[in-house]
Amino acid sequence: MNAPVRHPRPLPLIRGLGEPGDLGWVVMAHGELYAQEYGWNAELETLTCEIAGRYARRADREREAAWIAELDGERVGCVFCVADPDEAHVALLRILLVAPPARRLGLGGALVDRAIEFARGAGYARMRLWTNHPLEEAARLYRARGFVLVAAERHASFGVELVGQTYEMEL
Q1: For the chain, which residues make up each domain, given as ranges?
Q2: Is the pTM here over 0.70, yes or no?
Q3: Are 84 and 91 in contact (CB under 8 A)?
């Protein structure tokens, strides 16, 4: 007898953010996922909405970009690369997310790599990101790409006590 034929899982697609519903999905996915996985409240959704809204209002697409990851036609991830409003030579890696159905496929790394490549091409000298201590998988991913922890500070946000972490890398 022949063994059953296994069909490979479709590969994730990474595309530029810009389809109707993309911004809303980014905000909703962050709010829902972090509430489910970490017990965070709607403050995170508010912050995500502010970041996505600022991105949507800006016109400089040569210095800022965002991507959506899809799997089987469904949105499953995102990342933004935006200009630091205080330091022109610094790009900010913002609101990286990979939904559970798309984890362990290398998608988080691919999204971060896309943002780093864009930042280099846009002429930034450094990239910075802010994350929090429960997000250790993401922190490992950042460190593997050359980000270095430059600051850590306790804070109360999103309805919980956290340690905020700032990472940077030279581009």
Answers
A1: 13-170
A2: yes
A3: yes
